[in-house]
Amino acid sequence: MTSSQIQIMISMIAYMLIVIGIGLFFSKRARKSSSEYFLGGRSLGPWVAAMSAEASDMSGWLLMGLPGLAYWCGIADAAWTAIGLAVGTYINWLIVAKRLRNYSVVSGNAITLPEFFSNRFNEKKKVILSISAMFILIFFTVYAASCFVTCGKLFGTLFGFDYHIMMLIGAAFVIFYTLIGGFLAESASDFMQAIVMIIALTVVVTIGVVNVGDINQVIENVKNIPGFLSLFELSNPTVDADGVQQVVNGTAVFGDAKNYSFLTILSALAWGLGYFGMPQVLLRFMAIRNPGELKSSRRIATVWVVISLFVAVMIGVIGRALFPYNDALNSASNAESIFLFISQSYLPPLLAGVIMAGVLAATISSSDSYLLIAASAFSKNIYGGIFRRKANDKEIMLVSRLILVAISIIGIIIAWDENSVIFKIVSFAWAGFGATFGPLMLFSLFWKRTNQIGAISGMLVGGITVFVWKLLLNPLGGIFAVYELLPAFILSSITIVVVSLLTKAPEKDVLDKFDEAKMLSKMKG
Predict the structure, then answer these.
(1) Under the phi-then-psi rule, with left for phi > 0, alpha for psi from -120 to 50, and beta for the rest, what region is 74?
(2) For the chain, how far is it from start to end, CA to CA, in angstroms?
(3) Which residues of 159-168 are buried (b: 16+ CB within 10 A; e: fewer)?
(4) Distance separating alpha carbons of residues 304 and 504, to the nearest angstrom
(5) How would you classify the pairing of strands 247-248 and 251-252?
(6) 38 in Cβ contact with 110 (< 8 Å)
């Protein structure tokens, strides 16, 4: 290893030790009960709730996937996706947060998302609980895989180490950290990591602009790439059979720009719909200590998201201005290292190490959330809720830790392909959660007539449609090329309404709890 690489590694190891310290600090409290381990005893303040929610949500794709997308094919796809996410963030905090916080308490003091849905419809046979827990296991396993890919790419790019070894080490660190700390450790470290992420983004975009010259020079350097700066066209890198961009006389080759249609814009904006079903964000709503503090959290979260997304897209643009072509960035997968490449090229090693910790921060903050929620879905809801209802807290937490390791192993298998594109992995899992839980969450909170059969049908239609659309219909192109979240969300919503109206109305107890939650949400403070 070179002297620079050693300095970068020292900075990153120091950061990881701080994160472990946070986990150890909260480990004693996490062992008190499953409520403390899975939801932190509903004790999150507005800053921690807001920033930990967004840090766990954004993950490594914010620093690698989104800049890589902008670097590879211009701003259209990245910008419309960012706009959809920013709008979705604000609306989710505005209309869902307070109602869910109150309703989760009214509905048997639920501490997991499947438990809330099950209690909301006063289930006897726990069908909703089982189905929702299984979908969480499936999609969070995919999500965890995207984080492990980020770890492998990060350390492989920085130090030239083998991708698979680095991916395994990163996964082992995440598993260890999640096992010892629980929800409070995860939320506290996510708060710190949200700060690191936004500082890292800001520093890299600033140093990039300075090295190009100024923002006008950035635009000048990329304006001749067909469609690169357009919101209604995509640039079109000319690639060979292996997906590597072709070069003529040292210049990267681009074909004619591709049209970015209105349907494609809707498809990108549909990312915002995913927020209504995202467990890692919804759990923060349930965990906040005082519903009256949610207005502050909403403002904090929205500002953080808008700044972070804008800067992430700009890093991709600036990266193309700095490096019109580079062998290290010559494919859609390799382009996701542009953030790392700028940092390594223009920052002193120790500072670069701190900035690289931003990627590690994003990865850890997401993967620990994913693993913890997935493990809780099985241990608390399936094992403790169905198979062993008499299981005590100690037994549930032991099962949770075993399942966490099992999920991680499956995630590692999915992440084994080093050519995986982080953005594509995340987009599938995001669609899965958005379509499976998003419509159900909205109708559960705001439509009194929603019943158990409608909820079950909507979940199944949403989740299955994501798989069918992605794997079978999307390859057909045309109208089927739309992002699978949009049709799945619409079909799930229609199903919930139609099935609920065609079947028996909810019981009086269910309706009374709906009214109680509604009344609480209208109260100030």
Answers:
(1) left
(2) 56
(3) bebebeebbb
(4) 44
(5) antiparallel
(6) no
Higher-confidence residue of 150 and 27: namely: 150
pLDDT digits over 444-486, tens only?
999 999 999 999 999 999 999 999 999 999 999 888 989 999 9
Backbone phi, psi, residue 162, to 5°? -60, 130
**DSSP assignments along 411-422, one per residue:** HHHHTT-TT--H
107 CB contacts (<8 Å, ≥6 apart)? 116, 119, 120, 513, 517
Identify whether the C-beta of residue 330 lies closer than 8 Å to the C-beta of residue 245: yes
User: pLDDT tens, 332-380?
Assistant: 988 988 998 999 899 888 888 887 776 776 676 667 667 777 777 777 7
Q: Which residue has the tokens 């949009």?
A: 486
Under a CB-based contact definition with an 8 Å cutoff, are residues 339 and 316 in contact?
A: no
Instruction: Give me the count of residues in the chain.
Output: 525
Question: Using CA atoms, how far apart are residues 172 and 367, in angstroms rounded to an integer?
Answer: 11
The C-alpha atoms of residue 286 and residue 418 are separated, in whole angstroms, by 37
Find residue 190's DSSP bridge partners. Answer: none
Give the model's pLDDT for residue 523: 74
Query: Are residues 166 and 154 in contact, defined by beta-carbon separation less than 8 angstroms?
Result: yes
For residue 271, give the nearest of 2, 85, 480, 398 by alpha carbon.
85
How far is residue 475's CA from residue 465's CA, in Å, rounded to a whole number? 14
Structure-block tokens of residue 221 = 């350097």
CB-count exposure of residue 214 (10 Å: 0-12, 13-18, 19+): exposed
Calpha distance 58→36 (Å, rounded): 24
- The average confidence (pLDDT) of the chain is 85
Burial environment of residue 390 by CB neighbours within 10 A (0 to 12, 13 to 18, 19 or more)? exposed
Sign of torsion over alpha carbons 298, 371, 286, 439 = positive
Q: Hey, what CATH topology would domain 3-522 get?
A: Sodium/glucose cotransporter (1.20.1730)
In angstroms, rounded to a whole number, what is the distance separating the alpha carbons of residues 53 and 300? 11
Give kind and range of the element (H or E) at residue 356.
helix 349-376
Do residues 475 and 311 touch, judged by C-beta distance below 8 A? Answer: no
Collapsed DSSP state (helix, strand, coil) of residue 255: strand
Q: What's the confidence (pLDDT) of residue 201?
A: 86
pLDDT value of residue 459:
96
Q: Which residue has the tokens 């899975």?
A: 38
